[in-house]
Amino acid sequence: GAGAAGLWFLPHRAWGSLSLQQPPATPVQLEDLVAVRYEEGQQQGRRVVLGTGGFGRVELVRCRQRLFALKRIRKDRVVRTRQQEHVRTERRVLVGSRSPFIVGFFGTFRDRQYVYLLLEFCQGGELWTKLREMRCFEEPLAVFCCACVVEALEHLHGRGIVYRDLKPENLMLDQRGYVKLVDFGFAKELGRGEKTFSFCGTPEYMAPEMLRHEGHDFAVDFWMLGILAFELLVGRPPFHSADPQQIYSRILDGIFSFPAFLGEAACSLIAKLCRRRPGQRLGNTASGIRGIKKHRWFGALKWRKLSLGQLEAPTLRLIKEVRGG
C-alpha cells in the first residue's frame, strides 16, 4: 500500500469544503487537470502519487480549485497481460455506482499511452496504512469499517456484481473517516444462480471454493469480509504464511484459531462468515445481508444513520493523528 503521509504538506485550504463526491459543475477535460506537487519536504516539486499498482499509478490532480484522484492505466501493459476486460469492468462498475461507500467516479479519458479514470480523492488515505501504524484496531473502529464495507457490498450485490478483492489496501478513508471501496479490476457481473470460475484475488483472502475451482458467486465476498474483520482486529489475516501454497492448504483445511483477546461476538461473526460451505455462510443464507447487519457484533451500530452519513466516524481520529493536528 502506498502511504500518503507526505500529503499533509499540502496547504490546508487546498482540501476545499465541497463534498468530494459531487460531480463537477461542468464537464472536465484531460487538459483541465493540473498535477498537484509537494510544496515542501524531501519530495518538494514532485507530483503527489496516491498509490501505485500493476498497471500504473494514481496521482493527485486539481481542476478549478477541486482535488481529484487520477488513475493512469498503461494501455500496453493492459494489452500484454490481457486485462482489457478488467479495465472495462472497473469502468462499468464505477459508472453505475451511486453509493457513498464506493469511490466517486467522474469520467474516463484516453491518450496514446494511457487510459485515465477520474476519481474522488479520498483524503483520509489508505486503511492499510492506518492498520500498519496501529498494528490492530480496537473493536469500535473495526465494527465501523466493516459496517461501511457491508453497505458497499449490499450496493454491489444488488446490482449483480461480486467484488472479489476485499482487503485493507482496497479501502480508503474520506475526509469524514468513512470507508470507501476502490479498485474494481476483479469485480464480476453475475446473473442469478450463475457461478464464475476465474482464479483471482489476494492469497490470504481467497475463499475455499475459489481454490477448489468449483465455481463461486457472491458468497466469496462474505468469506472475505470475515477475513477482513479478523485482520482489522488481530493485525494479520487468519491464514498466514510467507508461502502462498501453505496459505492455500490452510484455507482448504479451514482451521484457524482466535486469539484469546478477541471478544465472543467478533469470534461468532467471523466463524459464521468463514464457513467452508458457501451455502451456510452468513450473508448467503435465507436472511441475506440482513443476517450480517443483525449480528450482535454490530449490535450498537445504527445502520440507517450510517447509510445517511450521520454517524460520527471513530476512524476520524486516525486521520487527525496522521495529519499531526
Q: How much helix is in the residues?
A: 25-40%
CATH fold-level label of the largest domain: Transferase(Phosphotransferase), domain 1
Summing up helix and strand content along with how strands pair, one would put the structural category as alpha+beta
What is the level 1 CATH name of the largest domain? Mainly Alpha
CATH architecture of the largest domain: Orthogonal Bundle
The assembly state of the depicted protein chains is: single chain
- Overall strand count: 11
**CATH homologous superfamily placement of the largest domain:** Transferase(Phosphotransferase) domain 1
Give the topology string: H per helix, E per strand. EEEEHHEEEHHEEEEHHHHHHH
- The tally of helices reads 11
Q: How many separate domains?
A: 2
Uncertain spans: 1-19
The dominant shape is globular
Overall pLDDT score: 89
Name the beta content range: 15-25%
Give the radius of gyration: 20 Å
The largest β sheet comes out as: 6 strands, antiparallel
GO molecular function: ATP binding; cGMP-dependent protein kinase activity
Family: Belongs to the protein kinase superfamily.
Protein name: KGP1 kinase
InterPro entries: Kinase-like_dom_sf, Prot_kinase_dom, Protein_kinase_ATP_BS, Ser/Thr_kinase_AS, STKc_cGK
Structure overview:
- This protein is α+β, with helices and mostly antiparallel strands.
- It folds into 2 domains: 5-120, 2-Layer Sandwich (Phosphorylase Kinase, domain 1); 125-323, Transferase(Phosphotransferase) domain 1 (Transferase(Phosphotransferase), domain 1).
- Helix content is 32%, strand content 15%.
- The chain contains 11 helices and 11 strands.
- The protein has helices at 75-80, 84-95, 127-134, 139-158, 208-211, 219-234, 244-253, 264-273, 289-293, 303-307, 316-323, and strands spanning 34-35, 49-53, 56-63, 66-74, 105-110, 114-120, 125-126, 161-162, 171-173, 179-181, 188-189.
- Strands 1, 2, 3, 4, 5 and 6 form a 6-stranded antiparallel sheet that branches. Strands 7-9-10 form a 3-stranded antiparallel sheet.
- It is globular and about 50 Å long.
- Residues 1-19 have low confidence and may be disordered.
